[in-house]
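>> received
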Amino acid sequence: MKRILVIIGYILVTELVYSQSFISETKLWSNVVVGTEYGSPYESFYIKMTIDSVTPDNSYGKVYRSNDSLHLDWFLKGSIRETDSGTVYYRDIEDVTELLLYDFGIEEHDSIQAIKGGSFYFRADSIRIKPFGIYNEFRKHIYLSNNHRFNMDIWIDGVGSIIGVLSDLSFHLTAGEGRGLLCFTENDSLKYVSANKCFITGIYTSSPQID
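>> returned
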């Protein structure tokens, strides 16, 4: 009987995790970018989204960026959409085509092409449902590697990449720049902090610890 209850509980948690939508007006991401030149400072910025009211299914949205720690000045960064299966596509305002940002519906050991037409693939090495963030909320964690390196990225359902919310897989094929998710809030509640580094202003000069 106990085993049956555990299985039922696992199914309920799984369904709850899978039902989360990525695009939301209640979320805010704080990100950090390490400059490409030696000794350059850490630049922080914020990302938020708005849902396109033209699409009642909430599958399309606009992405905004702010370099202001008070979150007063925002500019349009790009557009974003997600499918019913959990695939998220993003198009930067300076690009003409959209790129695959996430596939939260991927199965364990499935592969994803990093760049369309390219030879680099990422594989979902493992998928775990485990506690996340300050409140230990159960979320799906997807652990990714590519053909050359292991543990390249972690996708967290409803949150995005631990490397930064707009970091698609092709980012890992470039050199000289580092990225990270500093903190994540939802409904004005702080849900995740990396080494207690979150509310920062424009330039950050010490190295943050990325969990």
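>> DSSP finds one helix and 14 strands in the chain.
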